[in-house]
Amino acid sequence: MRPRHRTAVGRFQRGAANQLWQMDFKSPVGWGAPVGPLSVLDDHSRYAIALEGTWCTQAEPVKQRLIEAFQSCGVPDEMLMDHGTPWWNMKAVAGWTWLTVWLMRQGIQLHFSGYRHPQTQGKVERFHGALGAAMQRRGMPASPQRQSWLDEFRWEYNHVRPHEALQMRTPAAVWSKSMRRYQAHPPAWEYEAGADVRRVAAQGQLHLQGRRWDISRALAGEWVRLIRVQERILVYYCRSLVRELDLVSQRSTAVDRWLTS
Asked: Which member of 92, 176, 207, 226 has the lowest number of beta carbons within 10 Å of its beta carbon?
């Protein structure tokens, strides 16, 4: 098992396309909206999977844009995002939202960047830098033309602009569609035979070791897997590690892991 705490790493890169997608919102500065466009970037190829103006952080519009991305580009193995709305709820016990649970049901392993460490999502941050530079050169498009402007920028970024990190190839020359298909109604997740599997109660808790442990209201009614590691119990939902139960301190804590190279 990985150690409980990691220091921030410098740069990392997945070895193949669609092993990891990074997701974040652009800053709202200059867009005349509460938030800038939603960006989804493939970690290996830098290919811009999506660049969409939801102009809000509500979960439903984000979900619809992700469905479109999954249908056209396939489903990644993993996704990385920050502790922001709508995939994280700072007021919730465990932080999970129904959108994160929906993503995990697709078999996507989720990772969250460290608090106040935007460098963890360095590639999408650099993509946003290129987007901001284009805005300064070309000027801000009028509201009705914003999405078409974003579409044109995305096409140019993927198909025209060579990247030094890709040996001067374009992202489109390196990226290929994921063979994992989006499922509107995915079947129940099947854990390994013999795994210790428990169902989360209606209030988002597990009854274990003679007490109730807070897991997540977003996982109420869902089956999770428990793995005992010395005096800790790791709680997995599908492929994602969602909670750590410390039997010594009697604490249930969210799990933040730095990605390794």
From this structure: 207
Q: What's the alpha-carbon Rg for the chain, to the nearest Å? A: 19
> CATH fold of 20-174, please?
Nucleotidyltransferase; domain 5 (3.30.420)
Produce one character per residue of 192-226: b if its CB has 16 or more CB atoms within 10 Å, e if not.
Answer: eeeeeeeebeeebbbebeeeebbbbbbbeebbbbb
Task: Give the Cα separation of 226 and 231 in Å (integer).
Answer: 13
pLDDT tens across 128-180, in order?
A: 999 999 999 988 888 889 999 999 999 999 999 999 889 999 999 999 999 99
Question: How many other CB atoms are there within 10 angstroms of residue 103's CB atom?
Answer: 24
- Secondary structure in 3-state letters for 11-33: CCCCCCCCCEEEEEECCCCCCCC
User: Which amino acid is located at 235 in the chain?
Assistant: V
224 has which bridge partners? 198
Summarize pLDDT for 206-227 with one digit per residue, the tens.
999 889 999 999 999 999 999 9
Place of tokens 């730095």: 258
Q: How many other CB atoms are found less than 10 A from the CB of residue 15?
A: 8
CA dihedral 35, 41, 47, 48 (to 10 degrees): -20
Q: Domain-by-domain residue ranges, the chain?
A: 20-174, 196-253
> Other C-beta atoms within 10 Å of 33: how many?
14
Separation of alpha carbons 28 and 184, rounded Å = 31
